[in-house]
Amino acid sequence: MTQPVLDVRNLRKWFEIRRGVIPRVVGHVKAVDDVSFAIQPNQVLGLAGESGSGKTTIGRSLLRLVEPTAGQVVFQGTEVTRLDARALRRFRRKAQIIFQDPYSSLDPRMSIEEIVAEPLRVQGIEPDRRARRERVAALLDSVSLSGEFLRRRPRELSGGQRQRVGIARALAVDPELVVADEPVASLDVSIQAQIVNLLQDLKEKLGLALLFISHDIAVMRHVADRIAVVYLGKIMEIGAARDICEAPRHPYTEALLSAVPNPDPEQRRQRIVLQGDIPSPANPPTGCVFRTRCPYAIAACAQTEPPLEPVGAGHYKACLRDDAP
Amino acid sequence: MILTPRRIVGLALIALALACAALADVIAPHDPLRSSVAFLSPPSAAHALGTDELGRDVLSRVIHGARTSLVIGFGAAVVAMAIGAPVGLFAGYFGGRVDVVTVVLIDLFVSLPGLVLALVITVMVGPSLQNLALVLGFVMWPGVARLVRGQVLAIREATFIEAARAVGGTPAWIISRHVWPNTMRVAAAQFAVSVSFAIFTSSSLSFLGLGIPPPTPDWGGMVRTGYDFLAINPLLSLGPGAAVTVTVLGFYLVGSSVE
Amino acid sequence: MSALLEVRDLTVRFSGRGQVVNAVHRVSFDLAPGETVALVGESGCGKSTIGLAIMGLTGVARAGDLTGAITLTFKAGKRRDLMGLSDRAMQAVRGNEVAMIFQEPMSSLNPVHTVGWQIREAITQHQGASRTAADDSALGLLKQLGIPDAERCLRAYPHQLSGGMRQRVMIAIALSCRPSLLIADEPTTALDVTIQAQILELLKRLQAQTGMAILFITHNFGVVAEIAKRTMVMYAGQIVEAGAVSEVFHAPRMPYTRALLDSLPRLDRAAPGGRLPAIPGQVPSPSALPPGCAFHPRCRYALPGLCDGRTPALEMCDDRRVVRCLRWTEIAA
Questions:
Q1: Closest by CA position to B167, among listed A82, A107, A63, A61
Q2: Which A residues 291-310 touch C at CB under 8 Å?
Q3: With an 8 Å Cβ cutoff, is C26 touching chain A?
Q4: Partners of residue C104 on adjacent β-strands
Q5: Is the pLDDT at B178 greater than 90, yes or no?
Q6: ipTM of the complex
Q7: Which residue in A has a C-alpha nearest to residue C42's C-alpha?
Q8: Per-residue pLDDT tens over the stretch B97-147
Q9: What is the SS3 assignment for A31-75?
Q10: Please, are residues B258 and B188 in contact by the beta-carbon 8 Å criterion?
């Protein structure tokens, strides 16, 4: 068994809630609460969830853009949470992020060349200006942007083009792990497929490990090897993409899949419509966090928090009941 | 920079003031310091605005006065920017205790009327070209810091800042490459407004007797002395007064027209 | 039975900075009473503008910028062209005859008034009911919408409610005067997928109860299949295909529709590793449309000499089915 590129154990991120004239901590927003998973080399792990699930915070915590409250993040054998500033900088060379919003993730005052060159400059790669420019041009070429984009500014580009620039920037330092945070959510439908294809091509060509964060399970099914379903900061189910999508073993996964509108008018199926709203992560339900909306909830669900248990090869679920769904 | 009518007018007025300051020796019809027997004479062909109580040509003094005012104006604005911008950047970006202290300081200064503060300090240190620029700069820096800090707070949340952190950028790198360039525009606008405030306030200080000592032509001081002779030749005050107005307006129009 | 809404040659132009942009170009369609029609397309295709035009909310400056006819059959029976109505007359139409809900409920709800106040305001404005009667109606409405603890919801402010709840409130306000047509402009786009399912279910139920027609504007083909019987696909300000959802989705005639449907990642199809057939290029800016067919630079069936010169018209290809493509007969296979 090869060593995983990323091994996350018991990750927690709790945000403090302060109230009062002299601010005191009155509670916590448990954005990420005891999350564990691993990503193998050249594998895509999808993190699926809705708002309040904590999936974005997980992505940020891995890279220490947000400091984890507790837990371990082991990247290629090194514990990331305890790196000092220098070592953290070196780590950043190996683990990068693609942001959701292509409009605000590029500095409007910089040219495309400067934006893509920045990681190279910060990391001290290619100090020679001319070599650097060539490298930037090659990077842009790898995302299908021609050399004429070097001089342009972000405002002259379309959403899809900006996202490509974001991808080029993430790949500039030759990372081994890329966190893609909802990379296609802000794009037009006809552009989404282009970017998804691009990500897959790059992943294959460069041997990347990818953490693909999205609320769109259909995209995830297409891209990911394994999927982890997250709800209110906890993993509900994790397994091979096909298992999760075709034979879900957790009520939330089942409901999530059922809620995805299917562009096939003939395939009308019995839809599970969950009642109620997603609870606030500042005040999660006791026991199983999903119980307030779960159609299979029983009394025990309010008392015990279900641990992740295996239900198949590499397939785990966090549910007290064995017969749901 | 798109040239709106507002900006064009402002730039023209600034150009006029700068021309007077730079080319005073060339365009002024007379020596501003040369007194003559023909004191308090009315406007004539030789003296477009008349002469003052020491027989000196008012127009020439107004033109030369531009030099003094602009030196003080720019000097004060530079001082304000040199202190205020770094403080605003630092406090805005790092937050925490430094920010709390800065905000308290800013609020303190901003709540006091600038003129009064400048007055008090000038009385203590004595008026001179240098002192005036320094004092006014000192009075203005919290306003600059407040503006810069506000802008930094907004930019700090932008995703491209997070992106810069994600590639390993140090705070110094991020501030110099991302935060400051996106703040510069606002800071530049504030610079122009600071110049206008400084000229106006220094003229006010001169009017109150705390300006550059004579015989250097100084608009505020000229307004003051002309005040005694309003009945004889109002242009002794109106001339320099108009010069202050026009110059201050020019800088203000340009500064306030930046969104 | 005559149509509830008849739109003929609707054209909306926006002018600014010396440029004139055709947001909507000669769009015509009918809406029958009680029918749900989906207007689907990507950003900038003009679908939202059509909704705003029907409500008289486009805000176009010059008279020539909004042309065409929008004939509505009022509840009382009379038929009027909404374009010819004064603003005052339109105020009586909005909410009463035609209501609209938007994507961002937070910006459509007034943050300084309680939910109850806002529903009541809508009712009293149009029906002149007394305050108690309006309060009762509001409560009844929220209950009908399946909002738990409706009394507390009435007393709440918009920011205290979740996104799904705010959307329900907006629906409640929209339906408070029983309009015969509801225009829903991307109402579920900003919502989580499980909440979206709730709202869609709700709209279907309400439609069955009230018999109102729905013009559902969206970019999501899945949602179209869930909620609509008929659909109109838009591209660059024009309708490029229209017909029954089952037919359009199974046998799309317009290359754009077909390519778009093919490029969608599906839960029920294709294993990972394969490539999604993507549409090359990007959506043209309305101020720089290509000559001839607006889609031709991205179309794999485009014939040089034909598609880049002639602008295709909307042709009837079946019963109640139209397509805008010069080559649709050849591609049909």
A1: A63
A2: 293
A3: no
A4: none
A5: yes
A6: 0.86
A7: A188
A8: 888 988 998 898 888 888 888 889 888 988 888 888 999 999 999 989 999
A9: EEEEEEEEECCCCEEEEECCCCCCHHHHHHHHCCCCCCCEEEEEE
A10: yes
Residue with tokens 């070599």: A131
The reply to whether the predicted model has a pTM over 0.80 is yes
- Flag whether residue C283 sits within 8 Å of chain A, measured between CB atoms: yes
Structure tokens, B98:
């430094």
- Cβ contact (<8 Å) for A200 and C249? no
The per-residue pLDDT for range C263-313, each reduced to its tens digit, is 888 887 765 557 888 888 888 888 888 999 999 999 999 888 888 888 898
DSSP B88: H
- How far apart are alpha carbons A234 and A49 in whole angstroms? 10
Count contacts between A and B (CB, < 8 Å).
56
Q: Give the best residue of B160, B165, B170 to mutate against chain A (max A CB count within 10 A).
A: B160
- Measured between alpha carbons, how far is C54 from C99 in angstroms, rounded to an integer? 10
Please check whether residue B160 is in contact with residue A107, taking contact to mean a CB–CB distance below 8 angstroms. yes
Instruction: Decide if C193 touches A, using CB distance below 8 A.
Output: yes
Residues 246-285 of chain A whose Cβ lies under 8 A from any Cβ of chain C:
255-267, 271, 273-278
The residue count of chain C comes to: 333
Query: Does B169 contact A169 at a Cβ distance shorter than 8 Å?
Result: no
DSSP E strand boundaries for chain C: 5-16, 19-31, 36-40, 66-73, 79-81, 98-101, 181-185, 213-218, 230-235, 238-244, 315-318, 321-323
The CA distance from A196 to A268, in Å, is: 27
Cβ-defined contact of A188 to C165 (cutoff 8 Å): no
